[in-house]
Amino acid sequence: MSDDAKRIAHLRRELDQHNRLYYVEARQEISDREFDLLLAELEALEQKHPQLVTPDSPTQRVGGQPIDGFRTVAHARRMLSIDNTYDRQALLAWHERVAKGLGGGDLFGDAVSYVVEPKIDGVAVSLRYEGGRLKQALTRGDGQRGDDITDNVRTIRAVPLTLGEVSASKEADTTKKGKGKSGVPKRIPKVLEIRGEIFMPRQEFERINRQRVEEALEPFANPRNSTAGTLKQLDPRAVGKRRLGFSAHGRGVVQPDPFECHSQFLTAVRAWGVPTNLLVRVCEDADDVWQFIELFEAQRAGQQYEVDGVVVKVDRYDQQEQLGYTSKSPRWCIAYKYAAQQATTKLTQVDWQVGKTGRITPRATMEPVFLAGTTVSHASLHNLGEIRERDLHIGDTVVIEKAGEIIPQVVKVQKRGRGAGCKLIEPPAACPVCKGPVEVEYDQKRVAKIEGWLGQVEREAKKAQKEDRPAKKISQPAPLSEIDESGRYCVNPECAAQFREKLIWFASRGQMDIDGLGEKVVDQLLAAELVDHFADLYGLEAKQLAGLERMGEKSAVNVVAGIAASKGRGMAKVLSSLGIRNVGAVTAQTLATHYKNIMTLMKATQEDLQKIPDVGPVVARSLHAFLHSDRGVEVIDRLREAGVDLTSQIFEKHDAAKDSVFAGRRVVLTGTLKNYDRQALTDTLRALGAKVTGSVSKKTDMLIAGDKPGSKLDKARGLGVAVWDEKKLQAALGER
């Protein structure tokens, strides 16, 4: 074996061991930075020797290319839900049913023992290992079938890709008072399904929510929602960026099955490298169970995970089978749920914060109150509609609780005793940061209801006119009001609260594509006060950039060259790069096929814009408001003065494109194309009249498939969609 091969094997063992220490044993011997350096060394060696890369290498957790969707797969053994109970009497009643189902026995004796553990509120999954290697990961789904999220789960460091064998010397006694079979099996079963909970640790959840609040996005309501959303990402790399946890708590199919009790199973999988809850305990009677529940209630606020109760299970598997199941849940298991902790305080102030999208979010300031382990003085109020629905006033006495024990939220207003000094909460008429114009967004269901009514009225009027009769009166829905407001936005693209993120977006790949102008350089430019407007980029000189930290002369020259090159991107790129709400790349491309330049676009009315295919009233309003705001006009003028091309590069081709084989057709790209840049090809096809989308459906007309096309090709063939290879594409484009 070569030295590099030996080093690769050593690094893999070391990284797996540190993952085990961190996630299974809850201790850490090296820093995150040291771990990342070891991982980077392994990646470099594997790139040098690609033949040595294995599927279970720690480097393979980073995630592959985005997937098209999730397959639904049948569970080999049903994943049932658990019944809940909320008080001691109900818990004792369940215990009586268990004792009766097992043929009687002393109610508080040793006829049955229980395994108890904290109920982590995450996303239930089933991990299937075959030959000790992770083969498949499924969500619970409906209990019968779940989504295959294997690609995403492989990126989670807490989930071992391979299970480690345990020597006889490491076997552990897992039982109390001789119950069950002691010792960890020497061999891992050929098929081992481990059920457990994927969760987002509090620290990670708080980090993500702080970031969302800074960006004026609504914070996630609780870690479970954010975990579920993360696991549903179609890009596994996005999952890998969030440090999710995993804790095993059950099993599915085990072949061969060496286990006699649940506590033994948990000890075994832990010895094989799978995280289990460190607080798992075997209880000999119902009093012992209740003692654990009371003790843990005082401890739960200090755990690293969100928890809302305790799960109690009969330990022995033969007794579990004897008790059996209902149609929805096992009779041998129950969850005791704690009541949410609440506190009363006074609302003293409401501030309005602005994020990068321009969303303006209300934030409540309250008299400090201790709740669920921390002192709370702030809470998100989400939007004005919520404030009006709750009839919330400054000075009100409010009841708050932590959603999922994490996010403080106002759950009730105590209107009785409301003093004369209480004030109505007024939303900002202008942006609280830049004083620019504000646009209000309403609940889309209410908007759709009103638009539907208007359509009915119009159709009835035409029908009545045709039939020469009076039009029937159609009941009008209530008009939109503040209670329907779902958000308000600053529409000033140069608002200081938004500008940093918008500048990063402006320069990014697929937008103005300014090479070398990434997030760190943008921060340096802003700190040095070299840029406070998009147009300022085009006045930068290499000598100014060379003075920035870690920016040499060559890099500075390259950045300035990249900025200069971006001047020629054209109207469509400029429109999508400015961060105009609801105007993305597809809409910008569509607009560029209908207007010669931005100046002619600015002359269009909202009604004109709505006549364009795929430009609805919401987009038309956003675009028109931007183009006719003082700041919007200033942005366009300054970019034009800086020499940025604001003309459409595809307008003249639009009429010719009507005869193109791609005109009016829905096209999907998949796989690796050898002779085309994906973004450039997308732009070309759109210029030829195609609508390029990301997923295959019944409406898709054509799939262009490169190497390794994935599931999109199978779906297209199943739907009878025309499939083109790269050779046929080249021929079609060459003919033009």
Give an account of the 3D structure.
The chain is an alpha+beta fold and 736 residues long. It has five domains: 3-62, Helix Hairpins (Orthogonal Bundle), CATH 1.10.287.610; 74-337, 2-Layer Sandwich (D-amino Acid Aminotransferase, Chain A, domain 1), CATH 3.30.470; 344-486, OB fold (Dihydrolipoamide Acetyltransferase, E2P), CATH 2.40.50.140; 496-649, 5' to 3' exonuclease, C-terminal subdomain (DNA polymerase, domain 1), CATH 1.10.150; 652-735, BRCT domain (Rossmann fold, 3-Layer(aba) Sandwich), CATH 3.40.50.10190. 37% of the residues lie in helices and 20% in strands. The protein contains 26 helices and 24 strands. The strands form six sheets. Strands 12, 13, 14, 16, 17, 19 and 20 form a seven-stranded antiparallel sheet that branches. Strands 2-11-10-3-9 form a five-stranded mixed sheet. Strands 5-4-7-8 form a four-stranded antiparallel sheet. The longest helix is centred in the middle third of the chain and has 24 residues, at 444-467. The radius of gyration is 31 Å and the shape is globular. The model is unreliable at 105-110 and 166-182 (pLDDT under 50).
